[in-house]
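SUBJECT: A protein chain and its fold
Encoding: whole-number codes for local backbone shapes
RECORD BEGINS BELOW THIS LINE
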Amino acid sequence: MTEFHAGLELFRDQLRDAVARDLRRSRRSRRAALPTLVAAAAATALVVSLTGAPPVPGTDAAVMRHVVAALTPAPDTILHERALVTLGSNTQPYELWAETNPPYRYRVRKWGHEGSGTATTAPSDPAATLRAMVTTGKARVDAETSFAGVPAYKLTVSGSSARFLNGTAYVARSDYHPLEIDTTDGGGERIVFQSYEHMPANSSNVALLK
């Protein structure tokens, strides 16, 4: 046997041993991965059973969590929203001040009228409606885009039986505050936000509720 043939045999034996090791590692990896795959499938099934819809991709899910957090007022604050609302060919200013704690005092201006009072629960507002749609899985991230020059996420809201909920919403990528909500039901309504903030409930801001 020449040294050349001996070298080939050594290489053959080394290659055979390497293949055998790879096969053993592959079997172990498949056995280790099986519980993970089962757990992932179970988690998916749980999300589907709870929300009635498959889970959104990880990045989209993170966006939704940020939207819910940004649109959830902190305790002892006053929500302030100012927007232009367009219904058909008619555009009017809208403004809301609302306490996040009992007695839930509020003051609202819409369609040329102004009212104030207290509510049994926190007064509903367009942003709270959007938050509810995101929470119940009736909104999805469609795209990263810009709105009036502001980097934004475009959300599509669907599956609601209530009027003025289905449509498109834009939220800022910086703070996830609403920029615009466009609904398609009931003839369509466009809400362009000029201000969205949670103000401290100090004496000067509480005076805005009267």
In short: The two ends are 104 Å apart (CA to CA). Residues 82 and 88 are 19 Å apart (CA to CA). The chain has two domains: 1-55, 65-209. The helical segments are 3-51, 58-70, 126-135, 203-206.
